């Protein structure tokens, strides 16, 4: 399980996890989008490496960006449509064996 902060508005998604110096091992940020499309993220002003799980409407992980380098403006995407993106500490996926094709279950997360 991951305790998530939910980013559902444009300002919340734009701010994301910027300027944070740490993230608890069981914490993350869940980005909710109104449409499934190819989403891209950058790490400008993000101080910690992150894993990004791109998740389809049905909960399938369509791709993962692992250990995104902090403080860069290179766009990170998996080249496939997703409806949700979960950011967790860099290395989280490898440590737990999470991979493309796995399924995510949301509990107590209002979609919109």
Topology:
Layout (H helix, E strand, L loop, with lengths): L2 E5 L2 H6 L11 E11 L12 E6 L5 E8 L13 E8 L2 H5 L16
Parallel strand pairs: 1-2
Antiparallel strand pairs: 2-5, 3-4, 3-5
Helices and strands, in order, run as EHEEEEH
How helix-rich are the residues, as a percent range?
under 10%
C-alpha end-to-end distance: 21 Å
> Spatial order of the strands in the main sheet?
1-2-5-3-4
Residue-averaged pLDDT, rounded?
94
Low-pLDDT stretches are none
Bin the strand percentage.
Answer: 25-35%
- Give me the number of helical elements: 2
Task: Determine Rg (CA atoms, Å).
Answer: 13 Å
* Approximate shape: globular
Query: How many DSSP E strands?
Result: 5
**Protein structure class:** mainly beta
Largest sheet: 5 strands, mixed
Provide structural commentary.
With 112 residues, this protein is mainly beta. Helices cover 10% and strands 34% of the residues. It contains two helices and five strands, in the order βαββββα. It has a five-stranded mixed β-sheet. The longest helix is centred in the N-terminal third of the chain and has 6 residues, at 10-15. 29% of the residues are buried. The model has no long low-confidence stretch (mean pLDDT 94).
Question: Can you give me a brief rundown of this structure?
Answer:
This protein has 112 residues and is mainly β.
List keywords for this structure.
112 residues; mainly beta; 10% helix
């Amino acid at each position: 399980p991951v305790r998530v902060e939910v980013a559902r508005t444009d300002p919340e998604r734009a701010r994301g996890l910027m300027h944070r110096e740490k993230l608890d091992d069981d914490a993350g940020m869940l980005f909710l989008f109104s449409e499934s499309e190819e989403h891209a993220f950058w790490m400008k002003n993000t101080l910690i490496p992150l894993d990004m799980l791109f998740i389809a409407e049905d909960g399938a992980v369509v791709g993962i960006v692992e250990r995104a380098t902090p403080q860069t403006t290179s766009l990170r995407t998996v080249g496939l449509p997703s409806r949700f993106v979960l950011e967790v500490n860099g290395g989280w996926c490898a440590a737990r064996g999470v991979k493309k094709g796995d399924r995510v279950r949301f509990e107590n997360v209002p979609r919109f």
